[in-house]
Write a structure and sequence with these properties.
The protein is an alpha+beta fold. It contains 3 helices and 9 strands; from the N terminus they run ββββααβαββββ. The protein is globular and about 40 Å long.
């Protein structure tokens, strides 16, 4: 789903930040999709228990195999898409490509304003962003 560039109300406390145009998956990567890259559970449900490094590796593999640039969303993109109602499904923990307080930022759950920090939670999944600006 393409999310247009523009200002977005982000964070807690809320602040306005500009976000460039991007396309983000409506749902997290499934076990079936992940198993084409690396051993996964092969299910149609969300692939869970993925490390941040494996999520990034999946994005690199997808980029190489499709010719389009894929990556993890940054925290601003994830929150803008969540607030816009783009997602069909939101996991309790989803990797972003953002970093703060010495750890990667995870987003998810029902409260889109909530952020979590972790190095490698066992239940994390991820969704992909297709770059629309050449990066």
């Amino acid at each position: 789903m393409v999310v247009r560039a523009g200002d977005a109300l982000l964070g807690d406390p809320p602040r306005t930040e500009h976000v460039n145009v991007f396309a983000i998956a409506k749902r997290p990567v499934t076990g079936a999709e992940y198993s084409r890259f690396k051993e996964g559970d092969g299910s149609e449900g969300a692939m869970l228990g993925v490390t941040w490094a494996d999520a990034v590796s999946y994005c690199r593999w997808l980029t190489t195999n499709t010719g389009h640039i894929y990556r993890l969303p940054d925290e601003r993109e994830w929150e803008k898409a969540a607030r816009a109602g783009v997602f069909e499904d939101v996991l309790a923990l989803e990797w972003t490509n953002s970093w703060a307080d010495g750890a990667r930022i995870l987003r998810g759950g029902e409260d889109v304003a909530k952020r979590r920090h972790a190095s490698d939670p066992s239940g994390a999944g991820f969704r992909v962003v297709r770059s629309m600006t050449g990066r």
